[in-house]
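Thread: "does anyone have the structure for this chain?"

Original post by V.I.:
We have the sequence but no experimental structure in hand. Need at least a predicted one for the grant figures.
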Amino acid sequence: MKEIPTDAEARAQVEKLLASVQFASAERHRKLLAYLSERAARPPTESEIAVEVLGRKASSFDPRTDSIVRVELTRLRTRLSEYYASSEDRVVVDLPKRSYRLEYKYAAVASPDLEAAKAGGWSWLVIAAAAAALTASGVFLFTRNVAKVEGGTPYRVTPDAGLSWQPAVSPDGKLIAYSSDRANAGGMDIWVQQAAGGPPLRITSGTEDESEPAFSADGSLVAFRSDKEGGGVYVVPALGGEPKLLAAGGRRPRFSPDGKWLAYWTGNEHGRFPASRLWVVAAGGGTPRQLAAGLQATELRLARFPVWRADSRAVLFVGATGDAKTQDWFVSELTGGAAVATGVRRVLLDAGLRGQRMNTQGLVPLDWTERHVMFAAQKRGEDNSTNLWRIAVHAMTGKVQGQPERMTSGAGVEMQGTRAGNRLIYSSVIDHPDLWVVPFDGGAPRALTSDLVVEYRPSISADGQWLLFDSPRVGARGIWARNLETAAEQAVSVGSMPESSWRNWPVISHDGAMAAYQQGTGDVRAGSVFVRALAAGAKEQKVCERCLAWDWFWKSRRVLVHSYEDGHFHSVDAATGEREDFGPLEDSAGEVSVAPDDASIVYLRAAGDEANQIVVRPWKGVSRALVEGSWNDKPRWATDGRAVYYLSDRDGWLCMWKQDVAGGEAQAVRHFHSTRTRLSNLPSAWLAISVSRGGVVYNANEITGNVWSLVQP
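Reply from O.Q.:
Generated one for you, tokens below.
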């Protein structure tokens, strides 16, 4: 008979889990774990969990349209797996898939050789090799099932509850550097520790973020990006010392393998498609020299994220000659000359690979070995996971060869990989895309959702009672409404399959009675706008084709749409479909908001690829710029019509601001100067703000994560 833990052992293990670092900041998962433990004799139903643990109303919860229980149980399984990946506890608590009953078992006992290795202080490499031998012989250890990696057993380098990521490994594989907020000093710092284990060493300090570390060829120095004094690339001794500025404005530095050079890029992170430049400077300092100035006879307007070829004579980077559709990987020789396009973009698109939602820069090269370039990507149909991949790029011709190969296969977000020999170091990250409100009464921001399902583009009624948003709650992109007084949710319109039918860009009427949204099956320009009352049993009605809804008028049931057929803006009656043509806004870059008096609008005017103006225009009159300079986005009227709220990077970060229509200085509403919670953790198209009488609603993506390591063949 198989031996199982006693009831006392099981209860003690649950208490240990609840007190652990992994569960300390996860109140919902603490509550869920404790509840399932208490219900061991009679496992609960899905509805009981939703009502008794997750706060749903029994009268309105429908598991067919509300997936909160399934989502939270999946997240609980992930948290349990992460705990046991670095734990030596004798008792293991498991939650099998499609089950609401906890299971308890004893951890597999390793061989005497493995136990002796651990007791004798052998390196984790030896332990991993022993574990691999056990696996090969049919003896399986309890490992982190959300980060199963192709050809290796992962080992967690950092055990942090916050964010530790962006790892770099020294060329000899002995040291690992990374960026972490574990010091709770208000920013990210660079830390260094031995790959084989041991206490970490903090080598930078301060309230500004330090990120993107890279080791020198001999491992004695660490280069990194710092946001202090306008930002730039600094170098510091690997075991601590005084940082030295090497390149003002620089980002993501990379030392050449021969130790002579440092490559980096400069430019703005925000914007429609902001220009950037690639540079190289002597490792000891000096005058920077621009690389990749052109592609044959065409100027490269974007060049960023360099990685070195193994011979230190060329770099590969992300580049573009025009808009996002011209983006590719290019190779530029250190001696100069035109950059060569690799052709990787088309290969990766054909393979169904794309950048994940936390990476707004697309498919970024991470590392270039003798033959392969590593990158992180989502595969079509696997929207909940991001893995590391590689593809061969010929060292001499600079052309892509063959098809991409998957390097890791975890169910989470695996990114930011780097290698030293056969050691792979990477970040495993959990993101929390939720809706928040900044109240006007001076209180701290408050979460409106915390179910870990993605929510996009919130739209709130003027009285603050009804909230509309876009979310793939049941696997397909759909429109949902939440009553903020009762917390009850309802599906407004849900697509059938993620790839074949979608709903997005929701806008709620200012009285909270109506919803407008776009739905379609292909490109956004081919979508149609539908309207629907939020009352039970209401039917949706199409009001226009090849169009997009921007806002509702305040004094009537009319919706403002932009037509892709004639380029005009139209006021459409939600009941009859009757249209009033307002003509084109030739200078509009989108994000149009109707003023409470219905007599004017505010919208974006493009002022270059790295700047937008916020413009106020009467329907019959002359427009005027209300906000100029920097990258400005998402303008929304205050409910009294006296001010406009918007997002801007005017202070170097994407933050929330307010501008009185009568003039004066802009006022900061909320700063987001934290890597974990910055608004740029989501692409701009997925962000939105919406204003009620009580506050400003927005969506943000908080991220937590750790550094992992493994040895691959």
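V.I.: this helps a lot. The chain has a mean pLDDT of 85.
O.Q.: and The longest strand covers residues 423-439.
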